[in-house]
């Protein structure tokens, strides 16, 4: 990627469906603050099951105000999972993403 592409800012709306937001980012913050890469996501009504690249399974709810939703919007994580091997370009793209109330893609 060129230097201009990595510096490009991306905007997503804050009030979009949480499952669509997770499917678009393909990242999941665990409770310990580790950022995992999402391999697959199965939606069943108001819940979904996420399988990460390190074969961990997370049962999540469609809540825009949850701990994980806040962590994804505010980019709160301590480290990336070494087993998931999230590429550096993806972390840079994630760090340049902004979540805004009134501006951005509706996914």
Explain the overall architecture:
By secondary structure, the chain is an alpha/beta fold. The strands form two sheets. Strands 2, 3, 4, 5 and 6 form a five-stranded mixed β-sheet that branches. Strands 1-7 form a two-stranded parallel ribbon. The model has no long low-confidence stretch (mean pLDDT 88). It contains four helices and seven strands; from the N terminus they run αβαββββαβαβ.
Mean pLDDT: 88
Termini Cα gap: 23 Å
How many helix segments? 4
Largest sheet: 5 strands, mixed
Q: Rg, please? A: 13 Å
Helix content: 25-40%
The computed structural class is: alpha/beta
Strand tally: 7
Per DSSP, what share of the residues sits in E-state strands of 2 or more residues? 25-35%
Shape: globular
Low-confidence stretches: none
H-E string: HEHEEEEHEHE
Write the layout of secondary structure elements.
Elements: H1 3-7, E1 10-13, H2 18-25, E2 27-29, E3 34-44, E4 47-52, E5 57-61, H3 67-74, E6 79-80, H4 88-95, E7 97-100
Short note summarizing the structure:
The protein is an alpha/beta fold.
Main features:
two-stranded parallel sheet; 33% strand; 7 strands; 107 residues; five-stranded mixed β-sheet
């Amino acid at each position: 990627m060129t230097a201009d592409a990595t510096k490009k800012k991306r905007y997503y709306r804050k009030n979009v469906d949480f499952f669509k937001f997770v499917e678009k980012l393909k990242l999941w913050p665990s409770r310990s603050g580790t950022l995992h890469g999402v391999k697959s996501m199965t939606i069943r009504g108001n819940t979904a099951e996420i399988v990460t690249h390190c074969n961990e399974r997370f049962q999540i709810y469609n809540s825009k105000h949850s701990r994980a939703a806040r962590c994804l919007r505010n980019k709160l994580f301590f480290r990336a999972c070494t087993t998931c091997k999230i590429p550096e370009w993806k972390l840079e793209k994630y760090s340049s993403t902004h979540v805004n109330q009134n501006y951005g893609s509706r996914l």
